Amino acid sequence: MSLFTLCQWIETTSLSTAIREGALYYPILGAFHMAGIGWFGGMVLMGDLRVLGIGLNVPAADLLSQFRLWKWLGFAVMLISGGLLWWCEPIVCYKSLSFNIKLMLLVLLGVNALVFRKAKAYSKLGACLSLLLWVGLVFAGRGIAFF
After folding, report:
1. Closest Cα partner for 40 from 106, 117, 128?
2. Would you report the helix, strand and coil content of the chain in percent, each value rounded to 5?
3. Torsion sign across C-alpha atoms 46, 52, 54, 55
4. How far apart are CA 103 and CA 137, in angstroms?
5. Would you say 51 and 124 are in contact if contact means Cβ atoms under 8 Å apart?
6. Are 19 and 87 in contact (CB under 8 A)?
7. With b meaning 16 or more CB within 10 Å and e meaning fewer, what string describes 34-52?
8. What is the DSSP string of 82-135?
9. Distance (Å, whole) CA 51 – CA 129
10. Residue 120 carries which DSSP code?
11. Which tens digit of pLDDT belongs to each residue from 33-57?
12. Quick one: CA torsion of 106, 133, 146, 8, rounded to 10 degrees?
């Protein structure tokens, strides 16, 4: 089974149809997705700025550990709502260049977090890359509706 065939099947499921054709499901999921991005992204932004020496006057390790739970809760909201938004229009997403760029940037953000968390000597470089990747991710996400 090809990926496109799988997307076609998913789009015919009752959950996909309900979200797509329901009056409020899609906008509510969109609102939760945007809130999750803001929540998770805001926590990442605070940590990145602190690593760069900007922001709260708290040691970066303390700040990052204090917000770890909140950051992962925001990630969960973002992931679940984004997954449901994808589930209702998988063919649109499959054909969207912006969606593919967004997924690539998400992978790069994950790699960046894994690599630079371990390499303390390059943490400022990791924070700068994180900020740039997040800006790209937000623009790519907005582009899904248009490209």
Report:
1. 106
2. 85, 0, 15
3. positive
4. 8
5. yes
6. yes
7. eebbebbbebbbbbbbbbe
8. HHHHHHH-HHHHHH-HHHHHHHHHHHHHHHHHHHHHH-GGGHHHHHHHHHHHHH
9. 12
10. G
11. 999 999 998 888 988 898 888 877 8
12. -10
What DSSP character marks residue 77? H
Collapsing DSSP to helix, strand or coil, 22 comes out as: coil
Please give the Cα distance from 89 to 26 (Å, whole number).
10
The 10s digit of each residue's pLDDT in 56-113 is 787 877 877 888 899 999 999 999 999 999 999 999 999 999 999 999 999 999 999 8
Provide the pLDDT for residue 117. 77
How far is the C-alpha of 119 from the C-alpha of 29, rounded, in Å?
Answer: 37
pLDDT tens digits along 103-135: 999 999 999 989 887 777 888 999 999 999 999
Give the length of the chain.
Answer: 147
Residue type, 96: S
Residue 38 backbone class (left: φ over 0; alpha: ψ -120 to 50; beta: rest): alpha
Residue 15 Cα distances to 5, 30, 87, 92, angstroms: 17, 16, 8, 16
- Is 124 in contact with 31 (CB distance < 8 Å)? no
